[in-house]
Amino acid sequence: MDTFNSEIIAYQISDHPDTKLVLNTLEQLDNLSGNTILHSDQGSTYTSREFFEMARKKGVIRSMSRKGTPADNAPIESFHSCLKVETFYNHKEPIGSNNIVIEMVKNYISFWNNKRIFTKLGNQSPVDYRKSIT
């Protein structure tokens, strides 16, 4: 999530929260400014040598939450809460496959970025706000 406009700029879904997952997500990030900061928790995936090296090569400044301080990740935690409440918790039938989950997340991110308006963005979607200032 770009905290400038709350736009989801990269994501990956996996059965395993491993280093490969974060590397694949980081690989999606192109055309980064020299001041890009990637904030994460202190999980082993974000402290791995592979992640460190890829972030360095992309010119990404790494930032990590303090131990036991999930509030440091409030923007993305808030997004995850909205995702769950607005999709999964409203789903009337049991979700029968990973493909359904993947499609729900993909659709929600598209909605979030392109349709969902934010007061802090002048009642614009994240994408519309980004376009309005460039």
Shape estimate? globular
Q: Number of domains in the coordinates?
A: 1
CATH architecture: 2-Layer Sandwich
The total of beta strands comes to 2
| Main β sheet profile | 2 strands, parallel
Q: How large a portion of the residues is in β-strands, by DSSP E? A: 5-15%
What structural category arises from helix and sheet content?
mainly alpha
Number of helices: 5
Round the mean pLDDT to the nearest integer and report it: 91
What gap, in angstroms, lies between the N and C termini? 18 Å
Following the backbone from N to C, one meets helices and strands in this order, namely HEHEHHH
Q: Roughly what percent helix?
A: 40-55%
Strand ordering within the main sheet: 1-2
Unreliable spans are: none
CATH superfamily: Ribonuclease H-like superfamily/Ribonuclease H
Rg from Cα: 16 Å
CATH topology: Nucleotidyltransferase, domain 5
| The CATH C-level class name | Alpha Beta
Please tag this protein with its features.
134 residues; mainly alpha; Nucleotidyltransferase, domain 5; two-stranded parallel sheet; 5 helices; 43% helix; 6% strand; globular
Task: Describe the structure in your own words.
The protein has 134 residues and is mainly alpha-helical. It has one domain: Ribonuclease H-like superfamily/Ribonuclease H (Nucleotidyltransferase, domain 5). It is built from five helices and two strands, in the order H-E-H-E-H-H-H. The protein has a two-stranded parallel sheet. The longest helix has 17 residues, at 98-114.
